[in-house]
Design brief:
About 35% of the residues lie in helices and about 25% in strands. It is an alpha/beta fold. It has a seven-stranded mixed β-sheet, sandwiched between helices. The protein is built from six helices and seven strands, in the order αβαβαβαβαβαββ. The longest helix is centred in the last third of the chain and has 15 residues. It is globular and about 40 Å long. The chain has one domain: 3-Layer(aba) Sandwich (Rossmann fold). Strand 1, helix 2 and strand 2 form a beta-alpha-beta unit. The structure holds S-adenosylmethionine. S-adenosylmethionine (SAM) binds next to helix 2. S-adenosylmethionine binds next to helix 2.
Length: about 200
């Protein structure tokens, strides 16, 4: 039975409906590689997953997870900040996943920061195919996450509706720190250019 669950489950539902075999997609925050494995399955052997993380531990645990699932052959992993997205992604993409915050079980000092997230999200929006989607799961339960979520809302609210449809999913009865999912779909005829 379908269940209404937290932010990352909405992102997972969307990617499962959207991503097709042969697609190119991006995991902008590898973490422990759970999203990367799911994406690698969806794009199939003819597709490509391009991934970023600043932490060598995240890249190596994602590498190991992909290897054990036999999915490495369709993935490019970069131990580089996603703010360098435009230097590494040179083709239009169907889907980009951001799961902000820190590495689960890792160093909480190393968390995504709005200054670099803004550059990465802008680059991601530039890279999307018509009707392609970017999802951003945000975690406002800590100070940087709260700041990042607020700035993200301002940034996304400023996008022109003829360029992107933007959805904010928020559980109204789960408390102020509950994760939120933002869904941005590029419209046909979008003329957005990186600001
Ligand atoms: C919540 S975790 C991602 C979880 C992951 N999607 C999974 O399925 O396990 C957030 C990740 O973002 C990474 N990160 C922080 N700053 C980054 C940056 N500038 N570029 C890319 N990744 C970054 C952290 O190292 C951390 O691994």
């Amino acid at each position: 039975m379908w269940e209404l669950r937290s932010a990352r489950f909405l992102a997972a539902d969307i990617r499962e409906k959207l991503v097709q075999p042969g697609d190119t997609v991006v995991d902008a925050t590898l973490g422990n590689g759970h999203d990367t494995v799911a994406l690698a399955r969806l794009v199939g052997s003819s597709g490509l997953v391009i991934g970023f993380d600043v932490q060598p531990d995240a890249v190596s645990s994602t590498y190991a997870r992909l290897q054990s699932e036999g999915l490495l052959n369709r993935c490019q992993l970069h131990c580089v900040g996603h703010e360098h997205f435009a230097d590494y992604v040179h083709r239009p993409v169907r889907y980009v996943s951001f799961n902000l915050g820190w590495l689960p079980g890792g160093n909480k000092e190393i968390t995504t920061q709005w200054e670099t997230t803004r550059i990465a999200v802008s680059s991601a929006l530039n890279s999307l195919l018509p009707m392609g989607v970017c999802t951003v799961c945000a975690y406002p339960g800590h100070a940087e996450g709260n700041h990042e979520r607020s700035e993200l809302i301002s940034f996304l609210a400023g996008l022109k509706p003829q360029d992107f449809n933007v959805l904010r999913q928020q559980f109204l009865n789960a408390g102020p720190g509950a994760p939120e999912c933002f869904v941005i779909q590029r419209q046909t005829g979008c003329t957005y250019i990186y600001p």
